Amino acid sequence: MIRLGVLLSGSGTNLQALINAITAGTLDAQIALVISSKPDAYGLVRAFEAGIPTMALTADVYKDRLAADAFIAQEFIKAGVEYVVMAGYMRMVNRPILEAFPNRVINIHPALLPSFKGAHGISDAFNAGVKVTGITVHFANADYDEGPIIAQRAVVIEETDTLESLEEKIHAVEHELYPHVLALIAAGRVSVDATGKVHISG
Ligand code: GRF
To answer: How many CB atoms lie within 10 A of CB 64?
Structure first.
């Protein structure tokens, strides 16, 4: 059983997928605390309904981003969090969180990194006309969208796809992949070597 702290900013469908996997018994984890960078994020409602403690930070708090992250790290440590899971968190994580949780901050990105970094991975891939895009789960580090890659899944962009249908396909795969990767971590099967490459045992 691993204890997770979730960071989010929006609708929280990935949080929901984790909650569902824990309920179904396919993810041996407990979500100790959900912190939102936005007080009106629907993800907070999902957490509340699942009985998970929540905390919402205002834009004011983020004016000093290092102080904000020191506060977040402290709250996660207090809650006994072992891994920090970014689930649609629209902010960078900075040194105070990364140093408190080395190789223990995990992010999901809706494109095949290192392609289409940034906040618009799905539409950037769609507009570029690539025929295959996908999802990346990786450890976060100080370089945005550049940390060690844990797992990726490809999604084919068909001739008939629209941006909306592609978004749906990406989200459906995300909701399978994120709980799966966290289950591998919970099982102790994920490690990072000295060169920064991730290995999955077994
Ligand atoms: C997901 O597409 C994720 O890859 C990206 O932000 C989105 C979050 O969606 N980082 P949700 O809040 O989990 O519904």
So the answer is: 11
- Is residue 88 within 8 A of residue 35, CB to CB? The reply is no
User: pTM for the full model?
Assistant: 0.97
pLDDT means over runs of 10, the chain (202 residues): 97 98 98 98 98 97 97 98 97 96 97 97 98 98 92 98 98 98 98 96 92
Q: What is the CA radius of gyration of the chain?
A: 16
Rounded Cα–Cα distance for residues 151 and 60 (Å): 35
* DSSP E strands, 18-110: 29-36, 54-56, 83-86, 105-109
How many whole angstroms from 171 Cα to the centroid of ligand 1? 8
Contact by Cβ (8 Å): 81, 70: no
d(CA 24, CA 40): 28
Substitution site in 13, 92, 120 for ligand 1 pocket (most atoms within 8 Å of beta carbon): 13
CB 29 within 8 A of CB 18: yes
